[in-house]
């Protein structure tokens, strides 16, 4: 499939309408607590360390590929000037609904996370980018655009899957044995690694197409773009989907700072 972005846009519009977990907005109670300075922000299954965010009152924050009414409303309630940028209009509608419900000032913009040309250079103090870059083919473009739109000294909070989850054969009969049978190499892509029949089945079901990026690009790509990674966290999958999930934390988060590029 040449235009996987349009396919993934439709897939996430459908997931948002189905109210999947990443499309369920935070409650009014959580927003009101944030207005009082009680923050619970998630880019992992576990709450983010408060020091990663710091004092963001009056700061310009970009929630990148982060719609769904979860991170944006919390950051706005904490006093930030929030822009939510996402591929899915249905996801973005969740943020607009919460903004109306809780009287928050949130700007929403639709687009591809690899292309942030709608924003000027050096315009954000913080980018929050929860697990989503598995839906684009080139994560290095995401890091380069994040670097461009952040102010010097600005922070990037991002999360992503440990690519180890993409290597195993996912056939039900193999999974039932409890054995991990490696089948795919990293980097992984549905479009090139799945059989034609399996890929067509996934497309027909309207499921988003995914890419398993290498750690060289997920972590090293940030440093090549000019970021310094200053903190790291990881978490176990609370609802295991892959055989390996109970044995290693498969969620990763990094906190990076934009340096003056040499």
Low-confidence stretches: none
**What is the succession of H and E elements?**
HHHEHEHEEHEHEHHEHHEE
Q: State the end-to-end CA separation.
A: 38 Å
Number of helices: 11
Strand content of the residues, in percent? 15-25%
- Mean pLDDT across residues: 95
User: Could you say which overall geometry the principal axes of the C-alpha atoms support?
Assistant: globular
Radius of gyration: 18 Å
- Strand segment tally: 9
Query: What percent of the residues sit in helical stretches (DSSP H or I)?
Result: 25-40%
Structural class: alpha/beta
The major beta sheet can be summarized as: 7 strands, mixed
Layout: helices, strands, pairs:
Blueprint: H1 4-17, H2 28-35, H3 50-53, E1 60-64, H4 71-77, E2 81-86, H5 89-102, E3 106-110, E4 124-129, H6 139-149, E5 150-161, H7 172-175, E6 188-189, H8 190-193, H9 196-204, E7 211-212, H10 215-218, H11 220-225, E8 227-235, E9 251-258
Parallel strand pairs: 1-2, 1-4, 2-3, 4-5
Antiparallel strand pairs: 5-9, 6-7, 8-9
Helix pairs in contact: 1-5, 2-4
């Amino acid at each position: 499939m040449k235009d996987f972005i349009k396919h993934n846009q439709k897939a996430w519009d459908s997931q948002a309408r189905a109210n999947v977990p990443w499309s369920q907005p935070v409650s009014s109670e959580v927003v009101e607590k944030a207005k009082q300075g009680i923050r619970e922000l998630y880019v992992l299954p576990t709450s983010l360390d408060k020091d990663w965010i710091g004092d963001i009152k009056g700061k310009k924050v970009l929630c990148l590929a982060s719609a769904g009414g979860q991170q944006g409303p919390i950051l706005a309630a904490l006093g930030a000037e929030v822009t939510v940028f996402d591929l899915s209009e249905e996801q973005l509608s969740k943020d607009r609904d919460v903004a109306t419900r809780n009287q928050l000032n949130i700007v929403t913009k639709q687009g591809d996370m690899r292309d942030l040309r709608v924003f000027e250079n050096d315009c954000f103090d913080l980018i929050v980018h929860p697990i989503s870059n598995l839906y684009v083919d080139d994560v290095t473009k995401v890091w380069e655009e994040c670097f461009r739109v952040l102010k010097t000294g600005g922070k990037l909070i991002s999360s992503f899957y440990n690519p180890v989850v993409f290597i195993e054969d996912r056939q039900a009969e193999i999974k039932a044995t409890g054995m991990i049978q490696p089948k795919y190499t990293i980097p992984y892509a549905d479009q090139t690694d799945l059989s034609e029949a399996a890929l067509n089945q996934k497309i027909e079901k309207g499921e988003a197409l995914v890419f398993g990026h290498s750690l060289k690009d997920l972590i090293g790509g940030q440093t090549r773009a000019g970021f310094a990674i200053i903190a790291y966290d990881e978490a176990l999958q609370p609802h295991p989907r892959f055989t390996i999930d109970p044995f290693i934390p498969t969620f990763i988060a990094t906190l990076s700072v934009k340096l003056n590029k040499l």
